Amino acid sequence: MDARFDMFRNEFATRFAKRFVAAAQLLDQSPLPKSIQELVSLRASQINGCGFCTDMHTKDATAAGETPTRLHLVAAWRDATVFTDAERAALALVEEGTRLADTHHGVSDETWALVREHYDDDQTAALVCLVALINAANRMNVIVRNPAGSYEPGMFASLTG
């Protein structure tokens, strides 16, 4: 399978990607735990049907020490015993924040209260920004049909210059 448009070889898209990667690096430096970041990114990517991002965040989570059991259960997190209450709050937020069109209220007050119970202001800000960023990445990759399977952890490091 080939992408319908190669975003990695287009000059404008590469310039945009540098800024996108810079935003991702800012999130990496946030107080939001890396494990939460990867679980959230993986779940949004699953919901949005983004194979490229699902591949990337599965591999990045594995490289960061995440277990196969937890990665396999992200899509069924409500029925799994391997996630903490804080992780469940983040996963609920990413689901509701990704599926905005499913309800006219967006993120429920109940989910927001759970997020605020488990995350301080900086972590909450990072979580909201992460949900927005991963959804944007998913949409770009789905639009151009960027195929999954070729991602290697760290392969976008060269875009940070």
TrEMBL record:
TM spans (from-to): none
Keyword Translocase: no
Molecular function in Gene Ontology: peroxiredoxin activity
Xref: Pfam families: CMD
Domain (Carboxymuconolactone decarboxylase-like) ranges: 16-96
Keywords: Oxidoreductase, Peroxidase
The protein's name: AhpD family alkylhydroperoxidase
Organism: Umezawaea tangerina
